[in-house]
Amino acid sequence: MQALSSAVDYIKAPLVYKGKVRELYDLGEHFLIVVTDRISAFDYVLDPAVPEKGNVLNSLSAFWFEQTESIQPNHVVHTDVAKLGDIITEPELLRNRIMVTKKAERIDIECVVRGYITGGGWRQYQQTSAINGISLPEGLRKNQRFEQPIFTPAAKNDVGHDEDIPFEKMEELVGAELAAELRDRSVKLYEFAHSYCAERGIVLADCKFEFGLIDGKVILIDEIFTPDASRFWAVDKFELDTEIDSMDKEPVRTYLLGSDWDKNSKPDPLPSEVVEETTRRYLDIYRRLTGSDLS
Questions:
Q1: What is the sign of the dihedral through the CA atoms of 290, 293, 294 and 295?
Q2: 123 and 131 in contact (C-beta within 8 Å)?
Q3: Phi/psi of residue 110, nearest 5 degrees
Q4: Nearest by Cα to 105 from 16, 215, 17
Q5: How far is CA 21 from CA 38, 213, 230, 276, in A?
Q6: Separation of alpha carbons 178 and 66, rounded Å
Q7: Residue 160 has pLDDT above 70, yes or no
Q8: Whose CB has fewer CB within 10 Å in the chain, the N or C terminal residue?
Q9: Residues β-bridged to residue 164
Q10: 27 DSSP 8-state letter
Q11: What is the phi-psi region of residue 78: left when phi exceeds 0, alpha when psi lies from -120 to 50, beta otherwise?
């Protein structure tokens, strides 16, 4: 399987932004998002790219945008490479990777919903008995489910880490009314997907969303409920007080943490077996969530 590290050579449109994984091109009225197979971990984009990863991410986002459209409008115009004509010079190569979207004014808040106490939230709780300023009961155990999902926003930084902020800070940044709307919409989306995943033997532990504004109305943008924007656990792997093997690029993180990498420079290329296992994981979560293989 061939991996795609960049689509620049195959797109006849101006490149507006190149992220760790996604590339954004300007089509005039709309944007074109192309999802590459690049993979990042610990703030480094790694070599080599992971075959099928971009196809899975884009196809899963398209699937979820369709599933949630009735409860939250989104930015999708279409995902049909044939409609782009000669803008795409290698249509078969990019067939599952493209999304044409409306142009929204991005709201610079990452909207994070946590249904379980794990990851960075667990580390905050251990130190302060709170997450993003939300005081929590004593005695919670790692990976325990919250009685109600909690909303823990972050201020977006295009360089470096996003910054966890209390809800009150979010209100200062975007206004109380918009902050409340984004919180409520995020929690509603999480609850919908959590139920959907549970029926398929998967725990949706937490997730993040990005929103934008078009004519003053809130619209969902970027990606949703993918392995890069969510933490999925297999139900049969769920356990309290442990580090659960998540259904994403965990093989990459595990390999790097177990290697002699100095953590201060870009790691050496990933071994082929790590790349292959990561591809397998992405294809597996797609199959389990959608009920079909990636076509």
A1: negative
A2: no
A3: -90, 120
A4: 215
A5: 5, 23, 15, 18
A6: 24
A7: no
A8: C
A9: 154
A10: -
A11: beta
What is the rounded CA–CA span in Å between residue 42 and residue 104?
29
The type of residue at 133 is: G
pLDDT in tens, 239-287: 999 999 999 999 999 999 999 999 899 999 999 999 999 999 999 999 9
Pairwise CA distance, residues 2 & 20, whole Å: 19
| pLDDT classification of 204: cutoffs 50, 70, 90 | very high
In the numeric block, which tokens belong to residue 268? 């050496």
Distance CA(252)–CA(99), nearest Å, equals: 27
Question: What 3-state DSSP class applies to 292?
Answer: coil
> Among candidates 60, 68, 118, which has minimal Cα distance to 282?
60
The first and second tokens of residue 286, run together, are 């797609």
CA–CA separation, 252 and 46 (whole Å) = 9
Global confidence as pTM? 0.95
Span 85-107, pLDDT tens digits: 999 999 999 999 999 999 999 99
**Length of the chain in residues, anyone?**
295
Taking phi first (over 0 means left), then psi (-120 to 50 degrees means alpha), and beta for anything else, what does residue 64 get? Answer: alpha
**In this structure, are residues 175 and 109 in contact, taking their beta carbons and an 8 Å threshold?**
no
Which tokens in the block code for residue 165? 């902020």
Which of the four pLDDT bands, split at 50, 70 and 90, describes residue 158?
A: low
